Structure formats: structure tokens, C-alpha cells
Amino acid sequence: MTVILVLSTFVIFLLIDYFRTRHETVKPGLEATAAKTAAVPRLKPALVAGFEVPENLRYHPGHTWALSESPNLVRVGMDDFASKLTGKVGSITLPARGAWIRQGQKMCTLHRDGCAVDMISPVEGTVSDINEFVAGNPTLALNDPYGDGWLLTVQAPDAKTSFRNLLGGSLARWWTEESASRLQRLMPAATCGTFAQDGGAAVDDISVHVPDEKWLPIAKEFFLS
Questions:
Q1: CA 155 to CA 153: how far, in whole Å?
Q2: Is 195 helix (H, G, I), strand (E, B) or coil?
Q3: Nearby residues of 12 by Cβ (< 8 Å), 6 or more positions away
Q4: Do residues 107 and 92 lie in contact, with contact meaning Cβ atoms separated by under 8 Å?
Q5: N or C: which end of the chain has fewer CB within 10 A?
Q6: What global pTM score does this model have?
Q7: Distances in whole angstroms, Cα of residue 22 to Cα of each of 13, 35, 194, 206
Q8: What are phi and psi of 40, to 5 degrees?
Q9: Cα dihedral 40→46→48→51 (10° resolution)
Q10: Over the stretch 113-123, which tens digit does the pLDDT of each residue have?
Q11: Segment 13-54, tens digit of pLDDT
Q12: What pairs with residue 92 in β-bridges?
């Protein structure tokens, strides 16, 4: 009888310890999960002057974007304004893996109808990867600039400093509105008002409204190249 009592008491203490330990283990985990959820930027797709400006990205005034994937790994690409202004592109020349690129300097080159225009990097660092699918099918960067059409990933040793120099939130929205207004002023009077389609989004290829001889200087002006 005594043995049974001792064993029963031992089992009870084991159960108490199990549930106490389980409670202590789960609670920090839940707190960590909650903290992690709160820290992740919410995706808030925004349509600004007809162009998509996702809230979770940071933007360079030359119309490229950056997304932090880890403390030093940054994914970059062209924004929606750049993709629509570029229109049909023959090819995109991407840098080699391992190449060092500087913030505000050449990142890649767009080739269109015998013209070439550079896009500049939103961050500084070493190219860790390039999007081979875009290299083979450049229309990906135009049709899905924030998704499958990304251009590079960069190992940025001082990513925080690079991001401090980029636009986000209301500044990014203001810059997109300003760019759209400036583009309208540069367009021939007959094409004004033709950018928007149903739903308020800009047409996929604004370049068709730009005279061939004007496209390159306009692209260089907006891409800061």
C-alpha cells in the first residue's frame, strides 16, 4: 500500500512538473510569436497616382526598391512606375555575382529599341544573386516588378545606413505622385489623361504614348542615370 502511495505521489509530482514546465515553455514562445508578428510590416498595397507602391518596401528616387530579408541581405528591383515607363524592353543586363555596387550608382541596364538606360542601386554591397529568369525573360520585371520580376539580392554590410537614405511611407507616396505629375507635363498634350485605365491603375505600357526620340531622355531623367 505504501509503495502504491509513493508511486502515486511520484506520478502526481511528475504531472505537476510536466504541466508547470510546459506552461513556462509555451508562454515565452507565444510572447515571441506575438512580438514577431507585431514586428513584421503589414502588406498594405497602395495605388498612388495609378502606380502600385507597396508599404513594406523602401524606394530610391531613381525608382528602384529594396526589401530587407535579413540584417544584411537585401532584395532589389524596379518599381511599378519604372516598369510602366519602360514598356517593352528587349533585354536587361544584370551585374555579375560578386560584383560590388554602390548606392545611387549603376545596378543594371535596360535595352529598348536600340537605346540603353541604366537603373541605379538602392543599396550598397556585393551582388549575391541575380534573377536568371528575368535575364532570360525581361518582361517578368515589367509585369511583376515586386514579385517574380525582382532583379538582384545584395549582401549589404551597412544595410541600415542604406535604408536611411531611402523613401518609405508618405515620402514614397509623395515621390510617386510627384513623378506621375512630372511625367504628365512632359507628355504631348494629346496624350494627357490616357495613363489611367479601369480601377485607377496606370496603363501597363506608358511608353507607347512617348515619341521614340523622347523616351531615352525621359527615362534617364526619372531613373537618375
A1: 7
A2: coil
A3: none
A4: no
A5: N
A6: 0.77
A7: 14, 20, 63, 59
A8: -75, 125
A9: 100
A10: 889 999 999 99
A11: 333 333 433 443 333 333 333 333 333 344 455 899 889 999
A12: 110
Residue 152 three-state SS: strand
**What is the C-alpha to C-alpha distance for residues 7 and 89, in angstroms, rounded to an integer?**
78
Assigned C-alpha cell, 221: 531623367
Residues with Cβ within 8 Å of 94's Cβ and at least 6 positions away in sequence, in order, are 108, 130, 131, 134, 135, 151, 152
Domains identified in the chain and CATH numbers: 47-223 (2.40.50.100)
189 vs 193: CA distance, rounded Å: 9
Which residues of the chain are modeled with pLDDT < 70? 1-45, 188-200
Q: Grid coordinates standing for 159?
A: 544595410
Cell of 67: 526589401
Supply the pLDDT for residue 184: 87
Q: Read off the DSSP letter of residue 40.
A: S
First to last CA, the chain: 89
Q: Which residues contact 11 (CB under 8 A, 6 or more apart)?
A: none
Q: Is-contact 207 195, C-beta < 8 A?
A: no
The alpha carbon of residue 54 and the mean position of all alpha carbons in its chain are separated, in whole angstroms, by 8
